[in-house]
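Incident review: delayed structure delivery

Summary: a single-chain prediction request sat in the queue longer than the usual turnaround. Root cause was a stuck worker, restarted by the on-call engineer. No data loss occurred. The affected request and its eventual output are reproduced below so the record is complete for anyone auditing the incident later.

Affected input:
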Amino acid sequence: MVTDTHKQKSADSAIIHAFKHMQVPLMIVEPSGTILHSNRAAGQLFGYSDDNLSKQMIFDVLPVDSVKELNAYIPPGDFDAIIKGIIGRRQDGASVLLAIHLTAWTDENGAIQHALVLRDIAEEMEADRIRKAEMKRADSAIKGARIGVFEFDVKTQSVLVSDLWRELMGLEQTPTKELRMAWMARIHPADLEIAMEPIRRCVDEGHERASSEYRLRSRDGESWRWMRTDLAIAKRDKSGETSCVVGAATDITERKAVESTYHRIAEQFRSSFEAATIGKALVGVDGQFLKVNRSLCELLGFSEDDLCKMDFQSITHPEDLELDLNQFDLLKRGKIPSYKREKRYIRSDGTVLWGLLSVGMITDAEGQPEHFVSQIVDITDQRRLNELKSEFVATVSHELRTPLTSLLGSLTLFSAMEGANLSDGAQRLVSIAEENGKRLSSLINDILDFEKFSARQMSINAAQHEVASLIDDAVLANLPFAEQFGVNFNVTCRERNLAGFFDPKRFQQVLSNFLSNAAKFADEGSTIDILVEAEKHNIRVSVSNQGAGIPESFKDKVFLPFTQAAPVAKRRRGGTGLGLSITKQIVEQMGGDIGFKSDDGEVTTFWFTLPQNMT
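Output delivered after worker restart:
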């Protein structure tokens, strides 16, 4: 027959067995401080193997000096306590951060026993530290961003607000119970319903979020500031009704001011676009018209709806389309900032008009083309007048050239006749007439050349030619000029066989113009240097002279037609003011570049380049 004592021992053994195999670290401490029982999980927590933790003293693993000190953690009248953040000591001396559920009871002998349920909270505490740090950063960000937060209890109609919310609303001294009414009293009357809309949407309609922007009277009462409130549902009751909402308020006065400025600029652009007396259009990256103004519609004879269904390609004259598309492509790829050109457009009735087109690009935030702004000015009449002027100038020049050639021939012949019985005075008059005839002939030739080059009607017969001999010929031809102004020419051409692709007649014209100009403006007795150099793909010819130089105010006009640095009344050297303009057109039409450098009172250098080979 099994005795009660035997049954009790069996029950105790089963409890101890279960105790040992529990996954939660457990230990029981005797009044002496000896660890009577511990399970494997507790041993692993403190770094002990098997059952080595049992029979150790509690003082070896916890920072207490006695059982009495351990028991002191339990408040008077209670039988247990939770100790958090106590630092245990592992067998190897390392520390372990613990939370302990401590329970005390009295055994049959009246002695106090203690049971400890332990938990390693190192990771938990680190996570808590990170959470607190994040909360602190979030709080700093909210304060730094000047965001006032609040909580509204729908059931009690009470509100809790942050200090910053009070500051933003100018309600620092207002009692909490009066906050809502005081806030509403400061809202602009026209915006009161707008300001209350987020509450209505979240509470009455159940929207998760809502926001509004409204005007609030400033602290001094003299102006209105713009505020934004963002609201979100924080809690719902068991029936799903909104019971609490939280919100954030920010001052958006500066943003509204910027928006107002943008709106004003946009309105100004719209007004100037619509009311402009010249044709304007917004064009997509594919060439499609996005928006056109009334002037462009009237210019082209299409309605606004019709034009916005078209692209610029469809109304461009076929002969002008290729160059237009090339320029458009360069602009899209960012190779050029804008472009301007004269081109022909086909109107709705089939007639052709000339337009001066200016195109600029608008980019998005990434710098990619968004659309283009085009401006078209009708220059049909201007083109017609220019053509009539060119025809008139050419006709007059030709009409002058024929009799002038005859007169010059007669004067030259008369001057060369040895047997002519002329007095010194008569001979001088013949010489003056011949000289003036040559100047008039040069003037007529310059005007004709200028008109032909401007209209791109001057033929360029380019081929491969050696440079050195042509430069020698130009120098010889201009020696009279050098003698007249008391200067010398010096040629430096290290590569005598250097050749380029150009029209030799036009090459001579360009160089002669440079040489004659240099002779006119060089210091008497100085030397004019002609330097020929080979570049990577070009030939560069430079003409340098020592003289007064080009005035700073005139440098941007050097290549403009009919311009000279000195006023007519003060000019000591003749000229039409067309030579350098013609020279520039010749060089550019032969595929080269032209330029100059001039330092006041020092050396002035004019240069031009021409390609070495046909490109």
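Verification: The chain has 18 helices and 22 strands.
Action items: add queue-age alerting; document worker restart procedure.
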